[in-house]
Automatic annotation (TrEMBL):
A GO CC term assigned to this protein in UniProt: membrane
InterPro entries according to UniProt: MFS_dom (IPR020846), MFS_sugar_transport-like (IPR005828), MFS_Sugar_Transporters (IPR050360), MFS_trans_sf (IPR036259), Sugar/inositol_transpt (IPR003663), Sugar_transporter_CS (IPR005829)
Signal peptide: none
Pfam families referenced in this protein's UniProt entry, alphabetically: Sugar_tr
Main location: membrane
Membrane disposition: Multi-pass membrane protein
Protein name stated in the entry: Plastidic glucose transporter 4-like isoform X3
Ranges annotated as spanning the membrane: 135-155, 175-195, 231-252, 264-285, 291-313, 375-399, 439-459, 471-495, 507-527, 533-555
PANTHER family: PLASTIDIC GLUCOSE TRANSPORTER 4 (PTHR48022:SF2)
Cellular compartment(s): Membrane
Length: 576
C-alpha cells in the first residue's frame, strides 16, 4: 500500500506492508520554491526508538503539517498497525493513506493509546505564529544571571581604591590585581562546569545551582576582614558568573521563537551592560562613605536569590527535554513558551533535527574532531577577539584612565561609559534580526579599531595634549558604543546558533572558557603593560587586534538570521 506523510514541513512518502511493522519512507524539509534534501528511510515500529537509516536525493515538496500516524486510514485499506510499542510516549510520524484527501491532516502529540490517534485538525491551524509574549518573563528571569555577570565585572571599578585602604593593600598592586582577576579565574572554571551541568541536570536546575556560589560569594566579599576572604568570595562569585555566562545565552536561544531569537539573544548582552552600569552608579556614594563598598558587594546577593526562585517557575528548554526523551514534557514546555498553535511545528523541527543521528551526547574530545573543530574554532576565536580587543580593560580601569587624563569626576565619566554601553546594546537589539549577525560584527570591530586609534593618538600627539581629557572620554564612549553594537552581543547569540545540538552546551562552555581566560589575562596584566609600554602603545595594540578580527570574521563567520537552530545545524553539518 502506498502512503504519503506531510509532517510540519517534512514530506514523507512510501509504502506499508500489511504483514509487516515497517514503513518505508522518504522525507524532506519543505522549503517553498527550492530543491531540498530528501532522506529515504525505513521506520521499524517494533523498535521503540524508531531508528531511521537514511540516503539522499532531492525533491520539491509543498508544505503541509501533520504529526503521528493516521491508523484509521490504514485500516480502511486492509492494513492494521497495532503493535503495542507504537503507543509508547515518543514522537511518532503520522501517515496519510494515498486515498486520503489533503484535509486529512492530524495534530501532533505523543501517542499513548488508540484514543490518542483518532482526531483531525485543519492544516492551517498547525502553522500559527508563536505567542512571543509568553517568552519574555522567562527571558527576564534568566537575565538576572546576566545582570549579575555585568555587576560583578563592574563593581570593582570604583570600589577597588576604597577596599584596598580598608583591607590594607594600598601599596600592594599585585594583591589588587588578584582581587580583580580572581573573579575571572573562577569564571573560567564556572564556564566549563556550566556546560556539563546544563547537559546533566537541565537548564533551569543549573540556574538554581548557580545561585549558591553567587550568593555565598557576594556575602563573603561584603563581610571580608582580610584580603584572603575577599579573594575567596571573588572566586566563588566568579564561578557563579562563569556558569551564568554559559547557560543564559544557551537557555534564551533554546526557548526563543526563530523570528525574534536575535532580539532576545541580544537582551542577554543588554542586561550585562545594565549590570555594569548599576555597579558604576552604585559607586557614586563612595566619596562620602568610604565603607560603602561593602554594601556594593552585598546587594548582589538579592538578584541571585531571585534567580533561584524565578527558575522554579520557568519552563525547561524544550530542546533539552527532547534530547532526554521527555517528549510529553517538551510539548508542555513549548505550549507554555510559544502557545499550543506552535507545538506541532516546533516538535517537527526538533524531530527532523534529530533524524539520521542516534549519537549520544558529545564528549569534550569530540569538540576537537575534524567534524566539529572548524565551527568550534569560530566560537573560540570570536571570544578571543572580543576580550583581547580591550573591552574589559576599559570596564575595569576607565576610572583610573580618566583620572590620569585629568577628568575630575572620574566615577561619573565611567558611569557615562556604562550608559553608552546600554544605549548601544539597545540599538543592537533592534538591528539583530534585520541587519544580521555578521555585518554587525564587522561594523562593530571596525568602529572599535578606529576608537582605539583615536585614544592612542590623544595620549601621544602633543598637539592634542590640551584636549586629551575630552578625547579620552570621546574615544572611550565611541569604543564602547561600537562594542555594544556587535562585538558585545553577537558572539553569545551566534554560538548557540551555529553549534550542533549534541555539542552545543559543551562548545559554548569551551568558547566561554576562552572568554574568561583572555579576560583574566587582561585584568591581571593590563596595568603592568601600561606601566611598561605606556597607555598609547597598549591602545594601539588593541586597535590592531580589532582590525585582525574584521578580517577573520569576513572569512569565517556565517550568517544565521531568520533560520531555526535545526536549519542552521543541518546547513553547517550536512551529514546530520
Amino acid at each position: 500500500m502506498q502512503a504519503a506523510v506531510m509532517y510540519g514541513g517534512v514530506v514523507v512518502k512510501g509504502s506499508v506492508n500489511s504483514n509487516s511493522t515497517s514503513l518505508a519512507v522518504c522525507f524532506s524539509r519543505a522549503q517553498k520554491g527550492r530543491n531540498t534534501k530528501q532522506l529515504s528511510s525505513s521506520i521499524d515500529f517494533s523498535n521503540t526508538n524508531c531508528q531511521l537509516l537514511s540516503s539522499s536525493s532531492s525533491c520539491m515538496p509543498h508544505r503541509t503539517s501533520c504529526f503521528g500516524l493516521r491508523l484509521d486510514s490504514f485500516s480502511s485499506m486492509g492494513t492494521e498497525l497495532t503493535r503495542s510499542s507504537l503507543f509508547r510516549s515518543r514522537p511518532i510520524v503520522k501517515a496519510l493513506a494515498s486515498g486520503g484527501g489533503e484535509g486529512d491532516v492530524e495534530e501532533g502529540r505523543p501517542i499513548k493509546s488508540v484514543e490518542d490517534v483518532n482526531y483531525v485538525v485543519p492544516p492551517q491551524q498547525q502553522q500559527g505564529k508563536a505567542s512571543t509574549g509568553t517568552v519574555f518573563p522567562f527571558v527576564g528571569v534568566a537575565c538576572l544571571g546576566a545582570i549579575l555577570f555585568g555587576y560583578h565585572l563592574g563593581v570593582v571599578n570604583g570600589s577597588l581604591e576604597y577596599l584596598a585602604k580598608d583591607l590594607g593593600i594600598v601599596e600592594n598592586t599585585t594583591l589588587q590585581g588578584w582581587v580583580v582577576s580572581t573573579l575571572l579565574a573562577g569564571a573560567t572554571v564556572g564556564s566549563f562546569t556550566g556546560g556539563s551541568l546544563a547537559d546533566k541536570f537541565g537548564r533551569t536546575r543549573t540556574f538554581q545551582l548557580d545561585a549558591i556560589p553567587l550568593t555565598i560569594g557576594a556575602l563573603l566579599c561584603a563581610t571580608a576582614q582580610s584580603v584572603h576572604t575577599m579573594i575567596i568570595g571573588r572566586l566563588l562569585a566568579g564561578i557563579g558568573i562563569g556558569i551564568s555566562s554559559a547557560i543564559v545565552p544557551l537557555y534564551i536561544s533554546e526557548i526563543s521563537p526563530t523570528e525574534i531569537r536575535g532580539a532576545l539573544g541580544s537582551i542577554n548582552q543588554l542586561f550585562i551592560c545594565i549590570g555594569i552600569l548599576l555597579a558604576l552608579v552604585a559607586g557614586l556614594p563612595l566619596a562620602g562613605n568610604p565603607i560603602w563598598w561593602r554594601t556594593m558587594f552585598g546587594i548582589s546577593a538579592v538578584p541571585a536569590v531571585l534567580l533561584a526562585l524565578g527558575m522554579a517557575f520557568s519552563p525547561e528548554s524544550p530542546r533539552w527535554l527532547f534530547q532526554q526523551g521527555k517528549f510529553s514534557e517538551a510539548e508542555k514546555s513549548i505550549k507554555t513558551l510559544n502557545g499550543k498553535e506552535r507545538v506541532a511545528d516546533v516538535m517537527t523541527d526538533l524531530s527532523v533535527g534529530s533524524q539520521g543521528s542516534a549519537e549520544p551526547e558529545a564528549g569534550w574530545f569530540d569538540l576537537f574532531s575534524s567534524r566539529y573543530w572548524k565551527v568550534v574554532s569560530v566560537g573560540v576565536a570570536l571570544f578571543f577577539f572580543q576580550q583581547m580587543a580591550g573591552i574589559n580593560a576599559v570596564v575595569y580601569y576607565s576610572t583610573a584612565v580618566f583620572r590620569s587624563a585629568g577628568i575630575e569626576s572620574d566615577v561619573a565619566a565611567s558611569a557615562l561609559v556604562g550608559a553608552s554601553n546600554v544605549f548601544g546594546t539597545t540599538i543592537a537589539s533592534s538591528l539583530m534580526d534585520r541587519q544580521g549577525r555578521k555585518s554587525l560584527l564587522i561594523t562593530s570591530f571596525f568602529g572599535m579599531a578606529a576608537s582605539m586609534l583615536l585614544l592612542s593618538l590623544s595620549f601621544t600627539w602633543k598637539a592634542l595634549a590640551p584636549y586629551s581629557g575630552t578625547l579620552a572620554v570621546l574615544g572611550t564612549v565611541c569604543y564602547v558604543l561600537s562594542f555594544s553594537l556587535g562585538a558585545g552581543p553577537v558572539p553569545a547569540l551566534l554560538l548557540p546558533e551555529i553549534f550542533a545540538s549534541r555539542i552545543r552546551a559543551k562548545a559554548v562552555a569551551l568558547s566561554l572558557g576562552m572568554h574568561w581566560a583572555a579576560n583574566f589575562v587582561i585584568g591581571l596584566y593590563f596595568l603592568s603593560f601600561v606601566n611598561k609600554f605606556g597607555i598609547s602603545s597598549v591602545y594601539l595594540g588593541f586597535s590592531g587586534i580589532c582590525l585582525s578580527a574584521v578580517l577573520y570574521i569576513a572569512a569565517n563567520v556565517v550568517e544565521t538570521k531568520g533560520r531555526s537552530l535545526e536549519e542552521i545545524e543541518r546547513a553547517l553539518n550536512p551529514t546530520i
